[in-house]
Every structure is written in C-alpha cells, then in structure tokens.
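Narrative summary of target 7.
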Amino acid sequence: MRKGLLALPVLVLLAAPASGLPSAQASGQTVLRVPGGAAALAQALGLDEDWPRSRLLLTAIRVLWETPEGTDREFDGRRARVLEHLRGAHAVQAGPGAAQDDTVPGFLSEDAWKVVLREVGAPEARSTFERILGNRTAALLYHGIASLDQSTRDYLVKYPGLVDRLSEAERVSVFATFGRSLRVRDGRVEVPGGPEALPLWKEVVGDVEAPAAFILRVVSRDDGRLALIYDGIAHLEPGAQRFALGMDIPSDKRIERFRKFYDAAGAALRNWQPRRRPFDREPFDAIHLLFSMHFGPQGELTGPTWPGFWNAVLDPYVIPEKGLHPHSLDEDGPLDAARLLELFSVADPVERTRRSERWLFAHRVFGDATPASITSLLWTVKAYSEYPTLLLTLERMGIRTPATYAAAVRAAARLSDADRRLWQFQSALAILERSRAARSIGAKEAEALVLKLSEITPEGGEPYRGAVARWIEEDFLPAVAKPVVPPDMPPESGPVETAILAA
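Modeled conformation, tokenized:
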C-alpha cells in the first residue's frame, strides 16, 4: 500500500494547502537534465535529433507508455532500449551544468518531483528525468502536469493531496490526456463555455465551488467519458462549442438536452479503455464527430438537418423513389447535439463509421439544402455506402446540386460491376475529374457534363453504342476549349487523344 499522503483523510488532503510539495520554483521555471543529451535521446526514440526540446519528454511518454508494462512486447522492448540508453548515458553526461539543449521543462521543482516520485513508488535512478520516464505513473503524471496552464499548476502545487490522488491508477491515465482543459483561476474553476455553461457542468460533474474535488470528479467518472467530453468541448471552436452545449436551446430545456448529449456520447465509448491505452481514441466518438463539422458563429448547423430525413436515410425499407412528405422532416424536433449522437455516434464501430461518413458528406456538400430537393437528397445520401467513390469524385469537382448527384447515382445503379459500360462510365468521370482539377473547366461546366453523361447511360443491358465517344467529342472537348494540336498542324490532323491529354 502506498504510504505518506494517502494515509491522511481525503478531506484534509483536498481542503487545505500543505507543505508536502516544496513551493520554491515549484512550477514553470525549472528544467530536467537529459542524460546523454536531448539529441541522443531523440535518436534513441526514433525521432529527428532536432525534435523540439519542449516536446521531447512528452513525446517520449507517448512513445513508451501507450500501454502498461507486460501487455505489448514491442512497447516493452522499446522501453527497455531507451532506459538502457539513459543508464549508459550518465558516463558521458557533461558534468553538473548541462548545456541548455540538454534540458527539458520540469514544470515542478526538483524537490517537488522527489516527493511525487517517492509517493508513486518510482524506482531510484541517477536522475529525476530517468525516474520519471522509467515509471508509467510518474510519466503520465508529468504529461498531465505539463499540459496545465500556470495558474492551475500553481494551484496543484498548493494541494499535494490532489497530486497524490491524481496519480492513482484509476485517474492518472485520464489526467495525462485530458488534464489540459482543467482551469483554476483565483481559487475558482473555469468551465468550458464560461459562466453561462455553469449549470450544465453542475448537472454532469457536480458542485464547482471546491476546485480540487471538481477536478477529481472530472478525471474519475464514467471510465474517462466525462473527462473526454469536458476536454473536447473546451477545445471546440466557439460555434461548435455553443452547439455542443445547446446554448440556443431554451434555458428550461437546455440542461435536459445536455444530459442526453452526455449520455448518448457513451455509446461510442463502450470499447474505449483510457486507463490501459490513454492516448487511443474511438473513431467518430462525440468529440471526433463535432471536430469534423462546420458551424456558424452562433452554433448554426448546416446541411440536411431534418431528423425525419435521416430516419429515412438510415431505414433500409425506405425507397427513394417515393420521396418524403415535407411535414415528416421535423417530426422529431431539431437536430441538436444529443439527437446528432443518437443518430450517428452509435455503439457498433463499423455502423458508426458508415453513418458518420454519410452525415459528414451531406454536411459538407449540401450546406444549403432545402426541402424542395428532398427526393434527390434521399437518392444521394442513401447511396453513399454503395457509391462512395462516385459521390466523392463529384464533390472534388465542386458540384453541390443534389439533382446532379442523384442523376449520377441512378446512372451508376443501371450498371453492374462486371459491366463494360461501367468501365466506360468510370473512365469518362475520371477524365472529367482530372480536367476539373487542372482547371480546364469550371464547376458549372463539370456539372453540366456529368448530367449529360448520366443521361446517356442506357437502361437494361443495352450497350453505349458509341455514346461515350460522342459525349467526349460533342460535349467534353468543346467545354475544355483547349488547342488539340500544335499551331502549325491542321486541326484535322490531331487525334482526339491529344485533346483529352491537353485538357
């Protein structure tokens, strides 16, 4: 059992400043000597020898301590090699006054680190740097302390019991990754979203009047989910932050919706193990999804934001040809942050990726969508999983009209994978995309050509019968308007391939 600070009652540890961590130069001004020099350590880690010194130890911690000891042979071997390098480097250390480029930020004083390292049970070594890097708890604690701002770090130093609690196994990994968003100013917690968001955080975290207790709750609850959401919202752009917090939702419903948002975020995190792998993330969890989106300055959400539409998209029994009644689009209320997660950030990782990629595509491309284009939107977005390359190709061309996407989808649907007509269709689109990328044609011209190409795709098993060649000659080449042969050669002497390559 760990001794010292943990033997004292928790309330005493958190309530009053103590002298357990020496405060002289406790934070911000101290440095740690790097045995053998920073450049040599960077090389031992497989990094460039000019790796920024301010980031060196943080990077080393991520490289070496992504997993606990004994759980991954590759990580264990890498740790052993680097620690052996540090032990051997003492023989070449340049005396007691290491050069500036042989130091990294310490954030706490040497004496403060001695107290911390003793409490976490870090083995003795010839340098504080080696003791920190050689012990997973100490390394993760350093990572978390380094991420704090000066004011919060100073607060931490005053309460050694808080440091001790943060270093416990169930907290230190979460603190290492998400501690950066914990902010204490003048003895008060500053929450993401400012004073207006205080009622929301009180709902999911609890009272904010005692900063130490608040910090411990953030890094302790729900297997890291609370810390991830807290940190993620803190780092969102202002518009995205307002959306996540629901600041435009009436105040009498805001807390309820934020609680639903927080609860919905748990679905994507069922397999997440931050204590074991603190720097891992689940794809398209709540924060990943929000960071991938664009918002107006007041948190306005763009794209097809009708819940009824997305219910239809995700329902395999809804047929696009039948369309949707406009009255059904908003039947479940607005698409707020909670509803967004319920629809897209689901538990199954494969389905979550499929849904999220679908949503992000529609969000990017159809920002100005209106109910008038609902049938075309339904055709297009439902087809995303089957024809992602086609739709992303049209997006790269700068096309934004739902009807054009729907026409291309219907054309592709008339062709089978083993059909030579599909190869011709794909080849024509590839030529068109390259021409658009080379700025030989504009987005409007590209859109018109896509529509024309989609119109000539035959029904059933009928062949193109030269229709693609005619499309190239009669539509594509006039649109690119490029010289097809050298000036001194008659136009009729140049092959059509020359014109296509020139485009």
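Strands lie at 31-33, 103-105, 184-185, 188-189.
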